[in-house]
Amino acid sequence: MIVYLDGKYVDSSEAKVSVFDHGLLYGDGVFEGIRIYQGNVFRLDEHLERLEQSAKAIMLAVPLSRSAMAEAVCETCRQNKLADGYIRLVITRGAGDLGLAPWLCEKPTLFIIASKISLYPQEHYDNGLSIVTVATRRIAHDALPPTIKSLNYLNNILAKIEAKQAGALEAIMLNAQGYVAECTADNIFIVVKGEILTPSASAGALKGITRGTILDIARETKIPMRETELTRHDVWCADECFLTGTGAEVIPVVKLDGRVIGTGKPGPITARVLENFRRKVLVEGTRT
Ligand code: PXG
Q1: Sign of the alpha-carbon torsion through 260, 266, 272, 277
Q2: Residue 104: which residues within 8 A CB-CB, separation 6 or more?
Q3: Residues at CB less than 6 angstroms from ligand 1
Q4: Distance (Å, rounded) from C-alpha 87 to C-alpha 4?
Q5: Fold match between 2-115 and 122-280?
Q6: I want to staple 252 with a disulfide (CB 3.0 to 4.6 A). Which of 88, 221, 266, 267 is the partner?
Q7: Which among 179, 143, 137, 186 is positioned nearest to 162, based on CA atoms?
Q8: 44 vs 29: CA distance, rounded Å
Q9: Catalytic site residue 8?
Q10: pLDDT at residue 138, as a whole number
């Protein structure tokens, strides 16, 4: 495997970062997870825009222009002959002292991995996931904005561990006010009386690129859709529920906290959204 690392394409065995890198020492950095379908990078510009915004929020200078970054992503895919897979783009604060001070880090570290990802077994796409609500709250926007896709994933990892302890693969995280924020690595949607509902980013959700795609699909296919506050009760009593993420794509949820959602089977609107999503990923995208 070939990895892009600070301007060079190197063998994965040589793709190494310093033990003094603040991405490792403090989780000081940002990243993106991107999909490539049949040689087209899905919504690359949107991913790069979110990356720039995450970097801006932590006052980290992105080392490359938007177009140079896009080219590096595409070239990494070409180098690996990757037509279908998953791209991880990471910018860290770079190597520095054994102290927090980000300004003592000389230059950011940038690397791009083009590989594969598989988050959930196929049976869950066919029959739906069973998930739980965990006690770990989504970190407050005034502590660490969940809109920043940062290298600090411990909040999500603690929730993921709780999910695993409860025998679930994914979990709902509530915000400090007790409203549904999102899942550990996925945004959440419910369907109520033909309308698609999802928490707004201000509830503590990442502005997911897949989430944005679902909003576009709802508009295009004229399915009513709204961002709103959601409680666990709303999800228990919904007609349908599904999760979205670059890794997961679109996956139905049929049970939350032991309560069966709707008929207990993936619902018709979820199926419609998924069908449109499948079509969209093949026709949109930046050709590598
Ligand atoms: N919320 C959180 C906290 C995420 O980490 C999403 C929502 C969905 O956003 P996108 O832009 O992907 O639609 C994410 C994305 C992994 C992995 O390695 C995690 C994500 C994406 C891809 C892979 O587990 N998280």
Answers
A1: positive
A2: 96, 97
A3: 33, 117, 156, 182, 185-187, 206, 208-211, 244-247
A4: 11
A5: no
A6: 266
A7: 137
A8: 19
A9: no
A10: 98
Give the SS3 label for residue 172: strand
CB atoms within 10 A of CB 162: 18
Q: Ligand 1 center to residue 97 CA distance, Å? A: 30
122-280: which CATH number, 3.30.70.20, 1.10.580.10, 3.20.10.10, 3.30.530.20? 3.20.10.10
User: What number does the ligand 1 atom closest to the CA of 47 have?
Assistant: 11
- For residue 78, the SS3 value is helix
CATH assignment, 2-115: 3.30.470.10
20-67 per-position pLDDT tens digit: 999 999 999 999 999 999 999 999 999 999 999 999 999 999 999 999
Give distance in angstroms: CA of 33 to centre of ligand 1.
7
- Residue 127 tokens read as 């029959």
